[in-house]
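Troubleshooting log. The previous structure file for this entry was overwritten by mistake, so regenerating from the original sequence record. Sequence copied from the archived sheet and checked twice against the printout by T.R.
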Amino acid sequence: MDINKIIIQIKEKLDIVDVISDYIGELKKRGRNYVALCPFHSEKTPSFNVSREKQLFYCFGCQTGGDIIKFVSLYENITYIEAIKKLAAKANLDIDIDTLSNSNKDDKEKVIIKKINYDAKSIFCRYLRSNEAKDAIKILKERGFKDETIDKFEIGYAPDSFDAIYKELSKKYSEDLLLKSQIITSSFGRIIDTFRDRIIIPVKSISGDIIGFGARAIRESEQPKYLNSSETLVFSKRKNLFGLYNAIGAIRKERKAILVEGYIDAMMMHQYMINIAISPLGTSFTEEQARMIRNYVDEVIIMFDSDNAGVNAALKTADIFVDSGVYPKVAMMPAGIDPDEYLVKNGADEMINLINKAKDIITFKIDMIKQKRIDFNPDEKVKIMDFISPTINKQPNEIIKLEWIKKVSQSFSIPENAINNYLNKNFAKARQQILASQENDDIIIENNFIDILITKPPLVEKTKDLPIDYLTSNYAKDIFSFLKSNFDNPDLINNLLEKFPDYKDKIMKSIISSSDNEEIINEENLKKTLLIIKKNYIEKECQKLKERISTLSDEELKRFYELAKVLKNLKI
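Regenerated output below.
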């Protein structure tokens, strides 16, 4: 099946604004384009642009861009072919997409690793229903898990065997790929199952692919108690959140998420119909994880343990959210009890009461200080500012920032101007102004010429008689040469970006910006630009010849007069 025809059909059926909104939340209209905080890098001011007219996206901050297929591929960390298949299904296209093949080794291996994970999950689920899993079932029931929750999260059991999973999967997959999936591992020259005698919890991507596993020990003596899959081509603990696949619909609806510490807590929240719960994957919360949800939420409630480790983790996590443009609140659990235990003991209503008492991060920090004492000398007030000011300085919203400053001032009798001076003196980021070099007139004209052709490739046919040498910049020469032979390619933009990665910023900027300059992207303006390019070139050639007019050969003199005649007849 012709992959280019599939791409065309996908783009005819699906709108890039709608698809990206499904992934990162509502986009805001700005001019002819739509904007949002970029899902691919940390930023406080939206620089991620989506053009409905061009069906392209581009971030001016990290220079990531492309079409609808490229976005899905990047966002879900899947191959280009997988993205085509996913979008074809979304578009209800009746095509034989299984005939498509992946273009490189890593892409092929990503697909196979996901299949291995899916098959492993099925084996784990089967074992949970066997006699071997009686201790695992006992633990789950003692923790209060219902059958519906076990089924919803596809919880399984890894048998107490060194190679039971390997033996089954090796019938279908090579040892090399099984090792790359981290389902098995090599120990002292022997291949063994990674997970043995453990409760297995699949970790899913936001689209539902099984990308890894979490595993809880059955025996209390077994260490570590919780074990996660190692990093693979499809799994990174830093870049995924447990439960997001199950929670994303409710999070979008409520514009709120609850972040708990672990898998068990998150699953129990869902069992009690608190369906906006998610958790990190056994590591400290990261900027990448904050970016995954920031466009879906207005606030996030952090609910960690109330011990010192839990409080410190909550403070660090809150600062990451603030820095990512998310408004965090903190709701600490009562001492000595986890969220899952609290729910089983007290029920959903009491948990919701705790959640509703969550405090914004500055109020939480103020209360932490005031629990110890209420009167402070000047030296102690400086220490208070050391503790609180990093969070205030991370806040990108000036209104919230002013409210926080006012709250700190009132709480500790510190003048607002003193707080502002302190913030500016110690934490203001030095910013260097980088003056963009002024492009000369020729370069500006050539860039306009390329902008028109990239935006409206069929116009390339009107320019084929223009010699490449008439252009001065390498950028214009390279792009024009490529367009002349590829202008009718339906996947032109992606091919351009792959062919010229060094020009990606210029290419995407011209496409996105052209949406707001539609009046100049037309054939009439192209003709004018062509004339100017020809005029500039001929003028330079005439000038070179004129400078040595007395030494010109007859051939050169003839060329000089011919060029001068052409220049005179050019009408601009």
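Residues 369 and 384 are 8 Å apart (CA to CA). Archived copy saved in two places this time.
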